[in-house]
Amino acid sequence: MSADTLSVPVGLDLRAAEAIAPELSPAQLVWRRFRRHRMALAGAVGLVLLMVYIVGGSLVIPESASNAGSLRERLQPPTADHWFGTDSIGRDVFTRIIYGGQISIVIGVLAVVLEVTLGTLIGGFAAYYGGWVDAVLMRFTEAMLAIPSLFLLIVLSKFLSNDIPTVELWGRTFSGSVVIVIVVIGCTSWMYLARIVRANVLSLRELDYVSASRALGASHGRIFFSHLVPNTIAPIIVSATLGLAQAVITEAYVSFLGLGVQPPTATWGNMMDQSLSFIQRGVWWMWTFPSLLIVLTILSINLLGDGLRDALDPRTAKHLG
Amino acid sequence: MWSYIVRRLVQALFILFIITAVCFLLTRLSSDPMAQYATRQNMTAADRMALRARLGLDQPLPVQYVKWLGLALQGNLGESFFSHQKVSLLISQRLPMTLILMTTAEIFIVIISLFLGIVSAIKQYSLTDNLITSFSFIGYSMPIFFIALGLILIFAVKFKLWGLPYFPTGADVWNFKDPLAMVWHLVLPVTCLVAIQVAGYSRFLRSSILEVLGQDYVRTARAKGLMERAVLYKHAMRNAALPFVTILGLDIPFLLGGALVTESVFAWPGMGRLFWEYAQRGDFPVVNGVLLVVSGAVVFFTIVTDVAYTFIDPRIRLS
Q1: What is the pTM of this model?
Q2: CATH classification number, B87-312, choose in 3.30.950.10, 3.40.50.300, 3.90.1010.10, 1.10.3720.10
């Protein structure tokens, strides 16, 4: 044990190895570190399996099957016909997980896009302009952080859900609540990213190349978007990955509370919400399978995110494990 | 030091102002409290106007906000539109129940995550460590309602079926004054909260212990022949515990808000459920009251934690 901790930290070994092999590009170095991270690879494999199920599945089973069911077959435990059983109005849970999962993932990805945009702009502007802009934006960030996020989610989704049109996309009809959930999750999750970006930009804007660029007459917008933002891309990618896991789980919470995506559009969250009233009868398949899928997704994304963080930032490599 | 505290307090007031303004606007614009009267036959349009005027809903929003804020500053949070009880009374009824649930959970969380964090740090990369790490990764990725539903299915529904002593689900009515019933009703929700929270804390503790164990002063302590136990508990843990205490301190005020999902699933009459029940009906005095109490506590505890930290850790100088 003591011999273990007294030896040279692993991080130093890696850097030494990289110094010997200078012909590798930064991207190749990142890929090499990522490949060595077994848990991250496990996460990637988990995500591929998930995609095979929810994307591949939709090629085999049509969408109409996810909303069709006969009441005679309601609440059936898993059988050969219905691998994951049927729900309270006889719809096949296996099929609903496929189409529900697609919605959950799309919501997660779009919410993260919104989160990253808001976080980068707010954190970046605060740091770049400094002074009272910084003070106001950061107090706003702290204010949003002080409200428990689920409370904020509920208030915001009540606010937005007054009247909801339906949306037509890819030949399918979605409840407009999908858009609301995306906005709500995006608007309540950007705060940590804003702080990270701010801290990064604060140190970057003092560097010589930024002064040089300014001396050459570059506009604020150019300095901001082509010099400062690209240099904070590593923490942004990591936060976005971990944020995706958070967004998928948040969608599940919001829908579980009945505020999220409205039926008949299935998501993993509202499938669980619908199963709540049948738990007294010992119905387990309606919520176990969507939950397991949620856990698998979040776990894979989290593992991947951890691997990315260690790969993109060699300084944390010694925390591997 | 004092100027720092004063500056933080001024900032805190500003933050609270933003919080109340955001919450007030969102809740006020999100739902019309009059909507529930829309279908009443025996209520004329004139009656409705009169009621709006009586509740103060006919005034412009900024005026409503300033009035609400003025009363809130005097400790008057108004009264619920539906139950006509004072908001402060509703909160004071629910707060103790939330504190019972969350404090119990928090005690177990701290003890268990300390234990797991220390074990997996000193046995780094062993089978035990890998098991703990794997489980905490899974726990970290799990929505709390999955555990909640699973526990209900097994320990409430199935145990009842099998004739074993079973735990209550959210559906039953019980006497909040009976301590034994209280403990019995606490078991499942506390288990849920602990299972979810321990995952994050123990991983955090593990990495901060490992970081400290790699430092020179720990090597010195070992080199001068101290027992491993003394090195760990007298030297390493003191510094490793600092960041742990900090995140704990920052999380404590959120306990006041309770655990919304857990309280809803297990029908625990706490703050989270109070908020949820009244938010669904658009009863904004209650919603704003709960938000103000919880986020006020968060802002206050953040300052307390920051200031306390400078006393605990002399390396930190406030600028």
Answers
A1: 0.82
A2: 1.10.3720.10
